[in-house]
Each structure stands twice: as structure tokens, then as C-alpha cells.
Amino acid sequence: MELDHYQFFKLLEPESLEKVRSEAKKVSLGVGTFLYYQGDINQGILFLTKGCVKVFLHADEIGKGEITLYYITPGEQCLVNTLTPATATAIVAESIEGWLVPTDTIRWLINNSPAYRNFKISFCAERLTQIMHLVEELRFKDGSTSP
């Protein structure tokens, strides 16, 4: 299994690693494929080994625009599809390959694997910081300083 981009896989306990290996499904998708839409309940978490995914918010009305939250590249995970339901939309920006790990397996890892739990907490903090920087840029972009 080609999950070398994720350093924590080398730290997983043998039981956890075996569970992921036995339950993950190989995924390959082309540019323009939607992985999930805002409001979807996801059935798994994608671990990219190749390619790029754009995660964004879009206006309810067509033509009102969108805000790119971040891009997912190999070694990273999505934060908004960890939440149920998804709080943003994701589309393949550059053809992807990777592994889809079922939601139940992720929940099991969170409860049973200190290595995965540490990875997820660190990663969530990193993504939250990126989103906060985006909010800061948007807030001050028009010159306004009041909430």
C-alpha cells in the first residue's frame, strides 16, 4: 500500500496498520470529478498519493462566486469532510490516486490508535490556522477593520 506520504503510517500500531490495509479501497479520479458537496455525509476519508483536490465554499446562488479554502495534496487530509455533514465542496483539480478509508475505520483509529489521534489533532490545528489566515485576508481585503 502506497501510503508513504503519510509519515504517521510508519508509527501506526500493527493492529491499526492491518485494519487500514484490509479496509481501504484504491481510488483514481480525473479532473473535474466532485468528491463531495457541501452538506454530504461522507463514507470515508481520502488519503491522496498523487494529484490535488480543491476544497471550497460556494454561494447558494449560481454566479455569486466561491472561496477556495485550501488544496489537498499527497500527505494531507481534508478537514471539512471529517465533519458530518461536509461543510464545503471538493473537486479534483489534478487527477488523483489514493486510498479511501471508510468512516467507521477512521472512528476506530481515533478511538484505538494514539499515532492516528496525534496525527489528526496536529493536522486539524494546521488546517484551522490556514482557514483563519484566509478569514483574516478576506476581512481586511476591502480595507474594513470592524466586524
Structure annotation, total helices: 3
Shape: globular
Structural class: alpha+beta
Give the SSE order as H and E letters: HEEEEEHH
Radius of gyration using CA atoms only:
16 Å
DSSP strand tally: 5
Mean pLDDT: 85
Which key phrases capture this entry?
5-stranded antiparallel β-sheet; 30% strand; Jelly Rolls; alpha+beta; 147 residues
Question: Could you give a quick summary of the protein structure above?
Answer:
The protein has 147 residues and is an alpha+beta fold. The chain has a single domain (7-141), classed as Jelly Rolls (Sandwich), CATH 2.60.120.10. The chain has helices at residues 14-23, 103-112, 114-141; strands at residues 25-29, 34-36, 44-58, 66-72, 89-102.
Question: What do you see in this structure?
Answer:
This protein is α+β, with helices and mostly antiparallel strands. The chain has one domain: Jelly Rolls (Sandwich), CATH 2.60.120. The chain is built from three helices and five strands; from the N terminus they run H-E-E-E-E-E-H-H. It has helices at 14-23, 103-112, 114-141, and strands at 25-29, 34-36, 44-58, 66-72, 89-102. Strands 1, 2, 3, 4 and 5 form a five-stranded antiparallel sheet that branches. The longest helix has 28 residues, at 114-141. The mean pLDDT is 85.
Task: Write the SSE topology.
Blueprint: H1 14-23, E1 25-29, E2 34-36, E3 44-58, E4 66-72, E5 89-102, H2 103-112, H3 114-141
Antiparallel strand pairs: 1-5, 2-5, 3-4, 3-5
